[in-house]
Fold:
Amino acid sequence: MKATCWMGPQKMQVREVPDPQILNKRDAIVKITSTAICGSDLHLYNGFLPMMEPGDIMGHEFMGEVVEVGSGVNNLKVGDRVVVPFPIACGNCNACQAGAYSICENSNPNAYVAEKLLGHAASGIFGYSHLTGGFAGGQAEFARVPYADVGPLKVPEGLTDEQVLFLSDILPTGYMGAEMCGIKPGDTVAVWGCGPVGQFAIASAYLLGAERVIAIDRFKYRLDMAREKAGAITINYEEVDSVPDVLKDLTAGRGPDHCIDAVGVEGHSHGVLYAHDRMKQVLRMQPDRPIALREAIFSCASGGTVSVIGVYAGLIDKFPMNAVMNRSLTIKTGQCHVHRYMKPLLERIQKGEIDPTFIITHRMPLDQAAEGYRIFNDKLEHCEKVVLKA
Amino acid sequence: MGTSIEATANATSGNGGTAPLGSALAERARPRAAAAARYQRIANEDRGTGGESLADFLGVFSIGLGLAQFLVPEAMSKICGIRDAEGNKGVMRALGAREISHGVAILSRQQPEKALWSRVAGDALDLALLGKTIANPENNRGRALFATANVLAVTALDVMAARTLSQQPRTIANEGADKGIIRTKRSLTINKSPEECYAFWHNFENLPRFMRHLESVSVTGERRSHWKAKAPAGATVEWDAETTEDRPNELIAWRSTEDAEVFNAGTVRFERAPGGRGTEVRIELEYKPPLGKLGSKVAMLFREEPGQQVMDDLRHFKQVMETGEILFSDATKQRGMHPAQPDDKPVQL
Structure:
């Protein structure tokens, strides 16, 4: 089959690789019809996350048709059309049974390495380094899906791939980012980053009752989308002296009640602190540039919530713990527990409460995945989201 | 020494003798004494002396210095102010080899205090040699004095670390070291009842399903079993074991029989985890690695320590109990490094 392989930083290649096989009884093999490049794939593309090996198959947002099931899978049959959640979760451990699927205790076969780096291991993830298990990803023609009796969501008839594909990751991720804020009527929410997850966080904040959502980015086309499609008030941080000051102004001194970091390890900014972070990143002294996170904490109203859905890779410094502690902020974070959001969000799509297709700017054949990465990473052609058709 | 364990744990130490536990609390808020004592004992068992990080530093320092002495003896002689660097190459190399062996012994974490005391002896030798260097007018006295000052500083650290570690309690990790026995323990919470965990483990023939180094275990009598394990280079090792203790739903202990070629013994405990979290499973294992004492040192140095293996086994036990089987990824299904992509060989389930 054809698959998008990571061959080194900024080196993606669509290569011919062996077809997947059933490795465990609870596996299914899915013939992929649509898959997407995620913003978090760019962190791998740029080499900021550890433990990648040349030949690793990328991709954790995918859907398709079941073509084979293992003997332990009773709820799926060949021919079913499914969307696959990006965290791999067993459904049996204490974490899964509490609904915290992305910290499944059984799905990362490299848990011992993850424990050394993180203290405890999190779940396995498709196509997301050996630190999350070394599972082949879904930017390919076929994928093996472990615990297929737990993860995949059957797609009801009448919905297109593009309407449901983002249930695999970014729609639930954006939604969880907003849900973690505990939004109350009248609340103002600020969202850093207007990539796909940021757009869905903005839309979700409105779905959950936010009065106003303010979006922060530096690309005009992304801010336009956030304003026109998701309904945000927008700030271009390159055009203002201080984002926290503008946010204060917009909220008459209170600051946003909740702040969502949908940026993560590769934040941008201007000024001395950015140069400092960038230099440390280049020297491999710090894998992350936590600019958005610092700004979110600094801007957040006292007593408010900072919700972190951007991905972080390592230790960060100059963390404003003084602001967090003295101003009673709550930090909530996590890889999305996709499984628990898929059905409710599918219902919202069916009811027409949200149409997730608005973020798609590029549709390409799988063959051109490498080009898709380049366009998405370099923000060319006003790229917001690349969907690959296998 | 995070994994060190006191062998003869004192159940009463740590909770202050006879005073009731949590006496500042109202009666109804106090922890149950029996349960708390059990956990306090585990905490006490994990105690080290706090001297481990300095010892580790000295171990790494030894290896670094030793490598420099061994690989570039002339340069190291010059740093010490020795003029005839060429003629002293052999001596410098021998000193380097000594440093490396000390470093390895310290980092292997088996009786590191002995290695540290022998480092102190080495320091004395170094100081004597430096004294000779200073006495010889041909040498660079300034450099030799500077080197002496450095050795004195390190000697002080060596003595400090050796004294701290010498006060360390006998632990499960270091107690058997004299006989080349490695001891270790690990624990994990499993979302099944103690009854289910016990029942599965009690049938020793199930063990190879989650202990990947085992080929088979067959039950040969009421308390006896025959074990077959994979050894390096495709060989197998076999031995007989007997069950030494069996408390239903609580504990199983076994050990290899007197006449067995290899020595190993194990205990597994099952305790109900609080708040419906399943079972706390705790394993203690002891065994003699091949090549005796040396083998155990090498194994400990590379942290190929049994702890890692036991942890893997426990994780697999958890997977089998909770999910029915051990999960593989495309990368971990293969031996050695393998990219996260399917293999072209057909897979046997």
